[in-house]
Amino acid sequence: MATRNEYFPQSLPHPGKNLVEKLEEMGMSSKEFAECTGIPEPVIIAVLRGNSAITPDLAVRFEKATRIPAHFWLNSQRNYDEFRARKGQKKTLEALAAI
After folding, report:
1. pLDDT tens digits, 47-60
2. b/e string for 17-41 if b means 16 or more Cβ within 10 A?
3. In the chain, where are the structural domains located?
4. Structure pTM?
5. Nearest of 18, 14, 19, 7 to residue 78 by alpha carbon
6. For the chain, what percent of residues have pLDDT higher than 90?
7. What is the pLDDT of residues 29-85, one digit of tens each?
8. Residue 18 and residue 69: Cα distance in Å, rounded?
9. Which of 44, 78, 86, 97 qualifies as a FRET site for 31, CA 20 to 30 Å off?
């Protein structure tokens, strides 16, 4: 039987952090980005803070404004979601083991 080589990082930032960095690079405020993408500013702020997920619709709009492919945003969100799920599962298993 073949051994699977897997890597699970200890931390993984929300994809909003990548967006923060890109907006800084572009010299664009959250308000300007909201206007450029047609997304309400509170939604942009929620993504930037890591309080909201990047949906396929947002990813396509981000792509047009940042020229970073939508699949990058979606893969970043998927990876983050998987990381959070694994972290949550680990905490649950540790709590059960302590009983």
Report:
1. 999 999 999 999 99
2. ebbbebbeeeebebeebbebbebee
3. 15-98
4. 0.82
5. 14
6. 76
7. 999 999 999 999 999 999 999 999 999 999 999 999 999 999 999 999 999 999 999
8. 13
9. 78
Nearest to 85 by CA among 15, 20, 12, 19: 12
Token digits for 20? 């923060």
The span from the CA of 53 to the CA of 28, in Å, is 21
Report the alpha-carbon distance of residue 76 to residue 99 in Å, rounded: 35
How many CB atoms lie under 10 A from the CB of residue 61? Answer: 20
- Nearest to 62, CA basis, from 75, 50, 72: 72
**Which CATH code fits 15-98?**
1.10.260.40
Whether 25 shows a pLDDT value over 80: the answer reads yes
Whole-angstrom distance, CA of residue 70 vs CA of residue 31: 21
pLDDT at 8: 66
